[in-house]
User: What shape does this take?
Amino acid sequence: MKADTMLKQMPRMVDIANTATFLASELAGKITGVTIDVTSATTAALNYRVPPAD
Assistant: This one.
């Protein structure tokens, strides 16, 4: 993953809360076996390694 394609912002608490509320609701009754990433790619950014210079 290239660093310049990431969203470059931390997720807002309301985004995480809205996702949790949706998953706890009847609307999410058919959702199973999925990972929903609400970290705005910040987890990927923490794992990103800068390639060595040529």
In short: The chain has a mean pLDDT of 76. The helical segments are 13-24, 42-47. The chain is about 35% helix and 0% strand. Residues 20 and 30 are 15 Å apart (CA to CA).
